[in-house]
Automatic annotation (TrEMBL):
Protein name as annotated: ABC transporter, permease protein (Cluster 3, basic aa/glutamine/opines)
Domain ABC transmembrane type-1 as annotated: residue spans: 16-206
CDD domains the UniProt entry points to: TM_PBP2 (cd06261)
Its membrane topology: Multi-pass membrane protein
UniProt KW Protein transport keyword: no
Subcellular location field: Cell membrane
GO biological process entries: amino acid transport
Pfam families reported in the protein's UniProt record: BPD_transp_1
Organism field: uncultured Solirubrobacteraceae bacterium
PROSITE patterns: ABC_TM1
Homology family: Belongs to the binding-protein-dependent transport system permease family. HisMQ subfamily.
Signal peptide range: none
Gene Ontology molecular function: transmembrane transporter activity
GO CC terms of this entry: ATP-binding cassette (ABC) transporter complex
Length: 217
């Protein structure tokens, strides 16, 4: 079994780093969009709340694989030249952003009302209160659920590689190894080990962040 890894180490390593890139870019999109949607969800305007709600319900209830088909094959058929990297990372990022938004929304409500009132009394606008007072504390509160979301994103990245986009991630490279060596069990075992390394590393990182930024009550 070990010979499958040693003989194809370059391919597994290449797929590993492609997966890291997919997750890194998608996570940046998810955090940026998710934070914006969370702000809409807690905005004083009912219309903004509804807009944020529509985003969350839409992206949480459409399977990721369907989004990948729409963002790549659908847009290209409509005449929009979208590459596999853009389609893959944007789809995964926007899909995950809905979950990030809901996690942050729960974190916002965990911040005491008195702190918002104090910020208002000090002359902060609604946007300044959210940006300076509420969101930093909300992020600290939601580190554990964000960890679960990131781990799910790492596993969902396999769908990006397995879809029509065919990005050369861990799963794609494992399938290439299988087609060449016919050692199916061994190749997918090492692919599973690669994903396990990523998820365990993410777990350790978020536990360290949780410990560092823990809110002592």
């Amino acid at each position: 079994m070990l010979d499958v890894l040693t003989d194809n180490f370059d391919q597994f390593a290449s797929g590993f780093w492609v997966t890291v890139r997919i997750v890194g870019i998608s996570l940046a999109i998810a955090l940026a969009v998710g934070t914006t949607v969370a702000a809409l969800r807690v905005a004083p305007s009912p219309w903004l709340q509804r807009l944020g709600g529509v985003y969350v319900e839409t992206f949480r209830n459409i399977p990721l694989l369907v989004l990948l088909f729409i963002s790549y094959a659908g847009l290209r058929r409509a005449g929009v030249d979208v590459g596999p990297w853009v389609a893959g990372t944007a789809s995964l990022g926007l899909y995950t952003a809905a979950y990030v938004a809901e996690a942050l929304r729960s974190g916002v409500f965990a911040v005491s009302r008195g702190q918002r009132e104090a910020a208002t009394a000090l002359g902060f606008s609604q946007n300044e209160t959210m940006r300076i007072v509420v969101l930093p504390q909300a992020f600290r509160t939601v580190i554990p659920p964000l960890a679960s979301i990131v781990i799910a994103m790492i596993k969902n990245s396999a769908i990006v590689g397995a879809s029509l986009l065919a990005l050369p991630d861990i799963l794609k490279e494992a399938r290439i190894v299988v087609s060449r060596t016919f050692q199916t069990d061994e190749a997918f075992f090492w692919a599973a080990v690669c994903y396990l390394l990523l998820t365990v590393s993410a777990t350790i990182l978020f536990r360290a962040l949780e410990k560092r930024y823990a809110i002592h009550r």
